[in-house]
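Weekly puzzle thread! Below is a chain. First person to post its structure in token form gets bragging rights.
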Amino acid sequence: MSREKKRRSGGRRSPLAAAALIGIGLLLTGGVYAGASAAMAATTDTTVTSTLTADDGKKLFQANCATCHGLALEGTENGPSLYGVGELAVHFQVSTGRMPLQMQGPQAPQKPVQFTDDEIAAMAAYVQSLAPGPTFPSKEVTDAQGDVANGGELFRVNCAMCHNVAGAGGALTEGKYAPNLHTVTPLNMYAAMVTGPQNMPVFNDMNLTKEEKRDIISYLVYLQNNESPGGFSLGSLGPVSEGLFIWIFGIGTLIAITVWITAKSN
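Winning reply:
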């Protein structure tokens, strides 16, 4: 009897052993599943990608843009003609979510983009084929490797009166505004200068050469990549926000200290 009890006691397993085995099994199963999923995703990315054509862009345009701009880009009472705007303007308006327009107003606001990069390129190619206009620049123009100092000077002379010297944007008349430039891509910076969207004037190569546009883009990208050296930017709105901050917090703190000292002395 004693031998039998020893065998039974020696053959018992810890209650944690089953939990450990289940955990190991789940980890192994999860690892195999994750590896298989990654392999399938990699295969899908390399085999399914395709480039849309201008014909695909025509279908997208007719389904999403023709109501306002017309089937032949001639424009309607709800939207302007697109003759001569070119592929660059299409890329700017659609890649920033400004188009399709959500509602009529003083200015088309930025909103989430509704199309993929391939679809935007296809629509741009369609408009360019039907009504040629400004085209995409060379990569050198948007590489942000120009003269930052010269770009800053050019920006202050030509752009700062609307966009603020730090590119923070600003209010205009009749509910319009100059947008913040801190998240704009180099390509869309160039597109804005060349196509003149919304209230922005067109800067052709007679106003600003491609080298000067490259310098301005380099300056704006520099601002995007470097934080304010003076500490809190306070919206980069200059003395207005700085004075308001000092008045509220600085003067407010002094008044609070004065009241505390008076109450303490009494």
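Puzzle host: Confirmed. Bonus trivia for everyone else. The chain has eleven helices and two strands.
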